[in-house]
Amino acid sequence: MAKVEEPPTSYIFLLNIMSKRRTWACLFLLVYGTLLASSWNFLNSMLSWYSFQAQSSSASGWLAIYASGLLGTVFGLLSMVAALVVMIPAVLVTWITIVVLLAFFGKPKRTLVVEGRKITKEIFVIVVKILLKEGNVVAAVCAVLGYFALVRRNSTQGVVVE
Fold first, then answer.
1. Predicted TM-score of the model (pTM)
2. pLDDT in tens, 33-84
């Protein structure tokens, strides 16, 4: 008789850990904490760069537009990544639910595959549109708020904005 090989204990341990909801919640918090810390560091470095450039240059109005545009772009992309991470499980559950409901209503397997592909394409297009819309809104809001914050910062420091 052939002896059936069991998976290594490290594999079983990793599988047990990753199947817990707490593990995924901790990973979620770790990733978002890292994103928040890196975006805070980026914001501080951008503000220090802007302060240095505004003191040494006379065209601080253009610098404020450039810095706020860059801040808006980065925070817009970060919000899109964060929304994508949250949307993927929701989209998968929706897709699975729809395919299972189609199977329960007696659709043949070939039709189920074709319908599943159509549904996948439609869901993907809708998700991308929503992500782009939300990312653009966040980027625009961050850019406008960043511009006014930088202009206000210059006016309090005595730098003239052209």
1. 0.60
2. 887 788 788 878 887 887 787 777 766 677 778 888 888 888 888 778 777 7
Range(s) of the domain holding residue 62: 39-157
Nearest to 72 by CA among 160, 139, 3: 139
Cβ count within 10 A of residue 154: 20
> Rounded to the nearest 5 degrees, what angle is found at the Cα of 147, between the Cα atoms of 142 and 153?
120
Report the first-to-last Cα separation within the chain, whole angstroms: 86
- The span from the CA of 84 to the CA of 107, in Å, is 31
What token pair was written down for 66? 């450039």
In this structure, is residue 89 part of a structural domain? Answer: yes
**Is residue 18 situated within a structural domain?**
no
| 4 domain residue, yes or no | no
Q: How many domains does the chain have?
A: 1
Q: Which residues of 62-81 are buried (b: 16+ CB within 10 A; e: fewer)?
A: ebbeebbebbbebbbebbbe
